[in-house]
Amino acid sequence: MTYLLFAAIAFSIAIIVLLWRGDPKRRRIAGLGNSGQDQIQRRLMLAALLVPGLLLAASGDSAAFLIWFGSCAVGGWLITVSAART
């Protein structure tokens, strides 16, 4: 079950990075052009981001779900902090 948890965290963090890279507002402010994702793509990626959490919750392992949830929050925070420094 531990490997499944780590895979869920890695998948979700990867989707968070993709959402961050394609954020239209961030790209516009940084002067990177308007080649970000459209609203439909972003919503589909958000749905994909939540699937591992739903699977962990459905499996009945509340500890794994909470670890995944916290890891996504901390991972998103770390991505934001590292991007602000560059």
Short description:
The radius of gyration is 14 Å and the shape is elongated. The longest helix is centred in the C-terminal third of the chain and has 24 residues. The chain is mainly α and 86 residues long.
Kindly describe this structure.
The protein contains four helices and no strands. It has 86 residues and is an all-alpha fold. It has one domain. It starts with a helix and ends with a helix. The relative contact order is 0.18.
Task: Tag the structure with descriptive keywords.
86 residues, mainly alpha, 83% helix
Indicate the overall shape.
Answer: elongated
Portion in strands: under 5%
Query: In terms of structural class, how would the helical and strand content be classed?
Result: mainly alpha
The major sheet is characterized as: none
C-alpha-based Rg, rounded = 14 Å
Q: Spans with pLDDT under 50 lasting ≥5 residues?
A: none
Number of domains: 1
Helix content: over 70%
SSE ordering? HHHH
> How would you state the average pLDDT, rounded?
86
Counting DSSP E segments of at least 2 residues, the number of strands comes to 0
How many separate helices? 4
> First CA to last CA: what distance?
37 Å
